[in-house]
Amino acid sequence: MTQPKLEIQENVLLAPLTTLGVGGSARWFYSARSVAEVQQAVAFARERGLDLFVLGGGSNVVVADGGFDGLVLRVAITGMEGPHLQGRARGMLDVGAGRNWDEFVAMCVLRGYAGVECLSGIPGSVGGTPVQNVGAYGQEVSETIASVLVYDLTESRICELPSQECGFAYRSSIFNTSQRGRYIILQVRYELQLGAEPSLRYADLQRYFAGRHGKPTLGDVREAILKIRAGKGMVIHPNDPDSRSAGSFFKNPVLSEEEFSRLSARAAARGLKVPSYPALSQQSKISAAWLVENSGFHKGYVKGRVGISSKHALAIVNRGCATAAEVVALRDEIQSKVEQTWGVRLDSEPVFVGVTFEA
User: Fold this and answer.
1) Domain, as residue range, for 248
2) Residues in the chain with pLDDT values less than 70
3) Catalytic residue positions?
4) Domain termination residue (choose one: 177, 200, 231)
5) SS3 11
6) Is the pTM for the entire model greater than 0.85?
């Protein structure tokens, strides 16, 4: 049976498709609503020798002002199957990569499935969560991902990668490291716990529920997370200028014991102490926000049309009509000052599309 011809769009502005709101146009653009359409779009790019970029929810992306001279493929597969019950306490849910992540979390909480409640309010789509091993408030998606259904561009076939083959680590996976660009994520299978208690590992949550009688429910934890995130400008809202960002722009650095000792010595020389949080120390991480705020920057810092959120030191915000070049320039300034002050290099979290950096 002959596949219907795809209606590929031309010169589509990408800024409105991202939460940061900067960047130029895609030379070609297509929103695929099925696996077959993904395959057809890939064939279109290959026949014309085009570069290919897969766009999810646009929440963790910085698009160059010159746009992208290739095909931007938006995976809009939103179907969901399950739960497939594994005994009485576990359920498997197969979720399309294009499904809104927070809507999925809300559904899980409503149905009593624990495992993703602390990831409430994170913008973007389901397909983006395995790429960076999305995590917040003591949870990471790697704890609940059973497998990832992908289209393998190298072998031109669809395959299912079990969790142990995804190389999950702090904010990383094979999808953004060793196998970057090889796979297009089509669907994610999550294994969740029915009736389990919510996670309360993070200090902010423990403080929120301190002194409360009775154990908080999944719904209570979701509500708390949304309030905490909103207080940091990390919930997308059209009336909140601090939410016009790509989320946390820098990863919390992971230091060796020797590196941490050097950092602590520098801090002591300045009459400061490097903060230690249980959720960070478990993975040998330190606070990137502390490094930024003790390097001459502050919440609400302004640099022309860009700045730092007034609620969260790690969020670079578009204050209105900003360019990608201005965002990158502020990123470079922060990185340079932190490294000069503390001897620690901050790594960026967002994906840069069409942006070139000086060697």
Assistant:
1) 241-353
2) 1-4, 85-88, 276-284, 358-359
3) 171, 248, 349
4) 231
5) strand
6) yes
